[in-house]
Amino acid sequence: MIESTPLPLAGPDGRLRADAVRNRALLLEAAARIAADRGAAAITMESVAAEAGVGKGTVSRRFGDRNGLLRALLDHAEIQFQQAFLSGPPPLGPGADAASRLRAFGPALLRHEHAHLDLYLAAEPPPDRRYAVPADQLRHRHVAMLVREVLPDADADLLAHTLLSSVDVVLADHLVRSHGMSLERIEAGWHDLADRLLT
């Protein structure tokens, strides 16, 4: 499970305060309405505060910054994707050999991010925080684990970064929009790269 946003405040007994939970849900609903009506680019701390009828400080306390807010909007979809590759059916999930799971991972990631493209592009962190996003770190650890299982002597950490960069959401969007590439071609590129690596 990803932890992309600050947790709501807890009461003295460790349970989440009801008002903190309500405020967070209210703010996420407001952000989702803005995204549905005007697109993710229209989501700002100010616009969400205005839509929810609260002060900007309330939004900042719950999510830290705009990127944290956008990541929180993606949490549900991200958790579903994580469940698919961590415990779902093969070939993406357990039950298939590591090579098959690795081949399946890139296209699944590509399709997942494409389905939520507007939010993923808007939530793209600045360069100094790009590799600190918990969901991205989990993806990297997963791919590195699969590479390590198939190629025990390889530099699995570096190869995982190399593989994941080929289906990066920003790159994939650029290739589709500016070069007219299809998602199928990008998926085929992942398979080609993975097959060459694994053989």
Describe this structure as you would to a colleague.
- The chain is mainly α and about 200 residues long.
- The protein has a domain at about 75-199: Tetracycline Repressor, domain 2 (Orthogonal Bundle), CATH 1.10.357.
- Helices cover about 70% and strands about 0% of the residues.
- The protein contains ten helices and no strands.
- It has helices spanning about 20-40, 45-50, 55-65, 65-85, 100-115, 115-120, 135-150, 155-165, 170-180, 185-199.
- The longest helix has 22 residues, at about 65-85.
- The radius of gyration is 19 Å and the shape is elongated.
- The relative contact order is 0.11.
- The model is unreliable at about 1-15 (pLDDT under 50).
Instruction: List the uncertain runs.
Output: 1-15
State the secondary-structure class.
mainly alpha
Taking Cα atoms only, what radius of gyration do you get, to the nearest Å?
A: 19 Å
Largest sheet: none
The CATH topology of one domain turns out to be Tetracycline Repressor, domain 2
Shape: elongated
**Would you tell me the overall average pLDDT?**
88
Strand-and-helix sequence, N→C? HHHHHHHHHH
The CATH first-level class of one domain comes to Mainly Alpha
Strand content: under 5%
Cα end-to-end separation? 33 Å
